[in-house]
Amino acid sequence: MTHVALTIAGSDSGGGAGIQADLKTFQELGVFGTSALTAVTAQNTLGVHGVWPLDPGAVTAQIDAVFSDFRVSAVKTGMLFSAEIIRAVAESLERAGRPALVVDPVMIAKGGAHLLQEEAADALVRELIPLAAVVTPNLPEAEVLAGMEIHGEADMEKAGRRLIGMGARAVIVKGGHRTDEHRASDLFVDADGNRLVLSSERIQTEDTHGTGCTFSAALAAFLAAGHPLPEAAAGAKKFIQAAISDGLGLGAGHGPTNHWAFHRQGGMTMKGAVTVES
Length: 278
Prior knowledge:
This protein has helices spanning 18-28, 56-69, 83-95, 120-128, 139-146, 153-165, 211-224, 229-245, 261-264; strands at 4-12, 32-44, 47-53, 74-77, 100-103, 134-135, 170-173, 183-190, 195-201, 274-277. The protein is α/β, with parallel strands linked by helices. A six-stranded mixed β-sheet has the order 3-2-1-4-5-6. α1 links the parallel β1 and β2. The longest helix is centred in the C-terminal third of the chain and has 17 residues, at 229-245. It starts with a strand and ends with a strand. 55% of the residues are buried.
């Protein structure tokens, strides 16, 4: 059986993030990738040089076309840009029967460009988070969505629980922005009270463009293939750890991660790369 995943996100002309990173990740994990484009960006490793959002009707038409012809097992969202696009996506996913949804709340690019309008954050909370099987914010995104400052693991858990209170069934608060730790630790919490810490070696590198997109795409791919959520989260952590650790050295800024490194490093059997603790 061929599993199908759908990414709803913006395009990255530099190929390291957005739709391009998602489809590469799906392919590497043996999942057939479909897509619905929300915006076109002029982008490279040095930053985002322009953003052109699509009409919400065009986004709806793409999603409906995919669901009318494919049996989609999991969906991920990335850059959605506006409240109108968020609303169109939510309505389309409702019509599709609420498939397993990974929400990556993309707000700001590595170079500082805003990829989500300020007023759209409220729409994300109201319209999309209640549909999510899992939300994957980094620390700045979690602070905005949860309305609190995050200073450590206890705050990460509190923020995750707040997002579950908004309707998400699980949350992975990513700790990559913490600079006080030797390891990069993400916290998984779910509506059933489960809690896992996913930890890996912190790698000093500039090749981090598209890490959030790639992690959430890997998570969606593992879910599409039928893996339980905690196992999918661990797999996604291994995938992004491999992608970061085997940098490609491309571009003059924040370079892209290496999407084919996971299998080269042993796939799910990677030894010692990621620890999972309750």
